[in-house]
Amino acid sequence: MPRIAIISDIHGNLHALCAVMEDVQAEMCSEVVCLGDVVGYCAYPRECLDYIRSLNCHVVKGNHDEEVAREDFCRMNAVARAALKWTREQLDEDQLNWLSRLQYQRVVSSLFTIVHSSLDFPKAWNYIFNANDAKAHFMRQFSPLCFHGHTHDPKVFTCTRDYQVGEYVDFLGDMYEHGRAEFRLEEGIKYFINVGSVGQPRDRDNRACYAVYDTDTRTVTIKRVPYDIEAAQQAILAVGLPEYLAERLANGC
Ligand code: ZN
C-alpha cells in the first residue's frame, strides 16, 4: 500500500468529505484510514457514515461516535449536545451499532497506529495541543508512526530515542500558503501526527484538512482542500442545528 489517505473528524460534513475524497483520488491513494468523529455538528451524519462504511477501511472511534451511540451526551457542551441529539434521531439501529462497535485504537499493518485522541488512555479523549501534552502518549506509542485527530488542528509531534518530545512546525507555512506541505519521516524518530479535520477545521483555515502517507518514500503530506462551505452552512440551518455550527465553518475555528 504505497499511498494512504488519513482522514479524521468529518462530523457529518458531506460537502467537505466529497471534496476530500475527490482529492484523495487525484493523489492516487490506494487506501483510506479514518480516525473517527464521523458524525456530530453538521447536517449529513447518515450519508457520511454510509460513505465511510462503503470504503471498508480501518476506522477508530471518536468521542462523538461514542456519545451518539450511547445516548449519553453529558460530557459535551450545550451546542455539541444539541447536535448529537439531532444526529441520533437521524441514525438507525444498524448505524448506531456500527459506531458503538468501533475500536479505540488500531495497528494498521506493521506500519502505523491510529487513535482518535491519544494512546495513553484513548477512552479519556485527552486533547493533545502541545509537546508537553504528547509526552504521556509517547510512552504508549510502540510503532514509529501514529496518526490522530480530535483537536481539529494539524500538528506534528516528535519523540527522539532519548525521549525528547517536540513539535515540528516547519510544514505550517507551506500548508497555509500553498494548501500542501510535505515532509520526510526520519529514522529513529517517532511521529505522532494530527491530520486536522475534514468537516470542521479549527486552525483558522476553513479548508478541509487531511494527510497522505507515502509508505515508499516515507513522506507525509498535509493537504488543505477547498469545498462549498456555503452549501454546508445552508444544510445546517435548514435542519435546525445551532447557527453557531454554520458560522464556525466559515471562520475555521
Ligand atoms: Zn471531532
Structure description:
It is a single chain. The chain has 253 residues and is of the alpha/beta class. The chain has a single domain, classed as Purple Acid Phosphatase, chain A, domain 2 (4-Layer Sandwich). Strands 3-2-1-11-12-9 form a six-stranded mixed β-sheet. It has a six-stranded mixed β-sheet with strand order 4-5-6-10-7-8. Helix 6 links the parallel strand 5 and strand 6. The two termini are 34 Å apart. The mean pLDDT is 96. The chain binds zinc ion.
Name a few traits of the molecule.
six-stranded mixed beta sheet, 22% strand, binds zinc ion
What is the fourth-level CATH superfamily? Metallo-dependent phosphatases
CATH architecture: 4-Layer Sandwich
- Which CATH class applies here? Alpha Beta
Q: How much is the radius of gyration in Å?
A: 17 Å
Helix content: 25-40%
Shape: globular
Largest sheet: 6 strands, mixed
Total separate domains:
1
Strands, total number: 12
Mean pLDDT: 96
Return the string of H and E elements.
Answer: EHEHEHHHEEHEEEHEEEEHH
Order of the strands making up the biggest sheet: 3-2-1-11-12-9
Share of residues in strands = 15-25%
Number of DSSP helical runs = 9
Uncertain regions spanning at least 5 consecutive residues: none
Distance between the termini: 34 Å
What oligomeric arrangement do these chains adopt?
single chain
Q: How do the helices and strands line up, and which of them pair or pack?
A:
Blueprint: E1 3-7, H1 14-26, E2 31-34, H2 45-55, E3 58-59, H3 63-70, H4 78-90, H5 93-101, E4 105-108, E5 112-115, H6 131-140, E6 145-148, E7 155-159, E8 165-168, H7 172-178, E9 180-184, E10 190-194, E11 208-214, E12 219-225, H8 229-238, H9 243-251
Parallel strand pairs: 1-2, 2-3, 5-6, 6-10
Antiparallel strand pairs: 1-11, 4-5, 7-8, 7-10, 9-12, 11-12
